[in-house]
Design goal:
This protein is of the alpha/beta class. The strands form 2 sheets. Strands 7-6-5-9-8-10 form a 6-stranded parallel β-sheet. It has a 4-stranded mixed β-sheet with strand order 1-4-2-3, sandwiched between helices. α8 crosses α10. The N and C termini lie far apart (62 Å).
């Protein structure tokens, strides 16, 4: 007998609740969050072998564990990619914050990524994952037109969204102008099909001056025209003529990797 009905009413009780699904996402979330007595863990499997450590930690903190069918979990998290495990946390996401002031005062040669109007949550999550893997210090997201942080973004990012400091802004173009005014040491690179190929000398120029770098990406339609104008330079990735463009998260990973690779070659 299942312990809760197919339709799960608590999903609509509070906006503060956060759903995390998928084995690795839940495991990583619980390594970052100490579960509380209010948190709930839903399982669609009776074989709990690889879940042993995770369940022990959850039980230690007296969280509630319930069993459901795969169909019920799909209904709960609105995705079939839950792998038979869903965590419902009864408090808001704990996401590291990035502040404007810290960027205005930044003088180290760190890399930041700006994402303008990225609507696809899986694309956003994958870009966050690549950013964390390739040493990005923080993320700048536009509020309007960008997918909200959600269970889908969390899973796609392999929980990178819980580790990367984020700053939310209303307009990327306005923010870039403000950043230029307050901290002209920032080197702002925009990713655009009309840009020049990313060359070693561009990375060398940035690295030799020990300047912080902001790499800006637009949505599937590209960056807004004013955002492009406020970048110091636009760069592109070589592309086969049979393909119109790269997926955003792929472009993000390729450019970040190329920057880091050339940085190592320079050193």
């Amino acid at each position: 007998m299942w312990l809760i009905p197919k339709r799960v009413p608590f999903l609509k009780k509070s906006k503060a609740e956060q759903i995390v699904y998928g084995f690795h996402a839940v495991r990583e979330a619980l390594s970052l969050w100490a579960p509380t007595q209010e948190d709930e863990l839903y399982l669609a499997r009776r074989d709990e072998g690889r879940l042993k450590g995770l369940l022990q930690k959850f039980k230690k903190h007296k969280g509630t564990i319930k069993h459901m069918s795969y169909a019920q979990l799909t209904d709960l998290c609105q995705s079939e990619n839950h792998q038979g495990i869903v965590l419902v946390r009864k408090s808001p996401l704990e996401v590291p914050k990035l502040t404007k002031q810290s960027l205005f005062e930044e003088r180290n040669s760190l890399i930041y990524v700006g994402l303008e109007r990225v609507q696809d949550p899986r694309n956003l999550g994958a870009a966050l994952r690549s950013s964390l893997a390739l040493g990005v210090a923080g993320i700048i997201l536009t509020i309007h037109g960008t997918a909200p942080y959600s269970a889908s973004v969390l899973k796609s990012s392999a929980t990178a969204m819980l580790k990367l400091p984020v700053l939310r802004i209303s307009s990327m173009a306005s923010f870039l102008q403000e950043l230029k005014d307050k901290n002209p040491s920032f080197y702002i690179i925009g990713a655009d099909l009309e840009g020049v190929p990313l060359r070693k000398d561009l990375v060398e120029e940035w690295q030799s001056q020990s300047r912080p770098l902001l790499l800006v990406f637009g949505c599937e339609e590209g960056m807004a025209d004013l955002t492009k104008k406020r970048c110091d330079i636009l760069v592109k990735i070589p592309l086969n003529e049979k393909v119109e463009s790269y997926n955003l998260s792929v472009a993000c990973a390729l450019l970040l990797y190329e920057i880091q690779r050339n940085k190592l070659l320079i050193l």
